[in-house]
Amino acid sequence: MAGNGPAAGSSLETYSSLLQWMKSHGGDLHESVQISHNERQGTHIRAKKEGVPSNTHIIKTPVATTMSYFNAIDHRIGDVHFPSHGVKFPNSFIESARPEEVAIFFLVGQHLRGSESFWHPYLHTLPEPGTLTTLPYYEDEDLDWLEGTNLLQARKQRVAQMRQKYEDSYDELQKAGVEDSERYSWDLYLWAATIFASRAFSAKVLSGVVSELGLPEENVSVLLPFIDISNHRPLAKVEWRAGRESVDFVTLEDVAAEQEIANNYGPRNNEQLMMNYGFCLSDNPCDYRTVCLRAPPGSPLQVVREQQRQLFPDSSKDSEDPYYVFNISYPLLAPHTPIEHSIFSPALFNAVSILAANQRELETLEVSEHEIRLSNTYGNSRAALAAISQIIIELITHIIRLRSSGPGPKEPSNLKQTHAKIYRDSQIRLSESALVIAAWTLQRARVHGLTGNWEGIKQLLGDHMARIPNEKFPDAVRSRLQVKILERLSVLMATGELFSFDELLDLLPGEVREHFLVCSTAVLKNASRNIPALRGITAQASPFRFPLFVCLVVAVHITNRHKHGLGSGESHSFLPSRLSQWAGFILDHYLPPPDDVAWAVEDEDDENLLSEFDEVLAAMREQNADIFSKLEPFTGGWQGDAWWLSPNWVRWVWMMTEQECVQAPEDPLALLSSEGSGNVMLSTETYLYIPQSPQQ
């Protein structure tokens, strides 16, 4: 079985002996296949010159040659008997230890019998402990190759769990008075446990002779001699058929001449393959990465999870949500899955969105038995964009961590290190391809005027892909990235919803923009000159740039609404419909400031900054009132506390823009051009979010 290293007697003669032993008990190997061996694939089976058609029973492994917990307890049911063949444990040990531990100790016992064991022809083909490549056998320099990956801590936990299970079971073995119990060593236990973990099948393969009612409460694993010779190929079409006399390995696809006949261990990612089998695949289509995302105590995510548990106490939903980053070619997805959910599992995307949501968005939370998410309504794409930004930061951090850890430029010196390198490289590639998708979603939010423009989208995609070095991805991966982007819809139906300050000015009608540009330039320049904390800060970086814009838009919106409300007959609006809709939206969701009470923000430093800004505005009104008065035809002739830049309105907008902005990474694809140690400066930019209605 791939990844377990060479067997003790890995010659074809050894496997021929196993085949003859299996045939002597009623087993068989189809005449159109043969046993083969080479350095890359190890011992395996392949089709002869005539090939093998679909639905061929390749291997028949007799039930009598299988090994499981049933043999350890000398199980009988009707006329079916699973003999213990010379290794009989006391009932006290069987009753006190778990079935999986009993089976592992049973395998050790058969190994200790050597050539006297009934299963000797099979055991002789199993790899020796020194040749196993599963994680518990990593040591010293091998572990350097796992540095920075999820597997380093996972290995530590796995070994600790196995050690505890061994010590508990070994104590029970000694209490039961088993003869020569000291021979059941930790090394042999580790070997036997690895054999079961890497080679055993579900007890369902014995359902032809043992009904489910006859199975113990815990899962039982079954060793199937000869069937376990087959290597793993993702998505291989095979089946194991349980019969009364044998377990059959059946191929459900045609196999061409001289081609290997592979098994399918299931849609396992590289982490699972490394953990259980000691190998992984550089081009594993079923690969994905598990992301550790904890909901901080008291956070909206933690609170709503608790609500979900209370609402659905009898839910069959797993306690842990599947937080995954999928391979670009992951095959097990619904055809209409949005592009973001095809790379970032919906549970991950929704959870990060909830953690990034503001109070307004949290009011739209939807909780069902199997999902927690924000509703897909006008104004809620901000949380999704904030989530994408956080995901990009996590991806970049993950790539840099793996690039900068590990053994450096050294080449692998053994099989374990070779597989660990494949694993490391595949993890980096997985995050890099996911970064391309996430950066695309963010790019769409930053480009304006593309609504319904298919040619513009294709041009934008061409520019996006041109940022990626040609050697970064194989042609097939690059093509798959583009196809996925073009064929799948996004969870964000609109484009161009994040704005820099200069881009916001382009949303204003000509005359309003002209006067506001003069006004905002003067205000921001004076603030930078007269507020010590802002000295040297440009207008594009000033913390007051967005509040100034929003104050203007709200003032113009209220003034226009007031005019129309008086029935003046004037239908002209100084704002485009997008800004009018947005201004009404934020006024509905953020309580406007009162006229008779002075507001203050909670943060003392922010309040001090705002107070200094008030002083700048007051001095400018007194010394250069024209820059404000020229805007009065649009903002209205507000006086005193009703002025559009009054302290209360500035504080209201300050608090509102804190909630309605998105801090996004700048140029996330730049990392793909850097193959160094990972010393990449990750800078972010703050953008104001202005949603777009689907029809706009």
TrEMBL record:
Which Gene3D superfamilies did the record assign? set domain protein methyltransferase, domain 1
User: What is this protein identified as?
Assistant: SET domain-containing protein
Q: Which residues form the SET domain?
A: 31-266
Stored InterPro entries: Set10/Efm1_SET (IPR044432), SET_dom (IPR001214), SET_dom_sf (IPR046341), SETD3_SETD6_MTase (IPR050600)
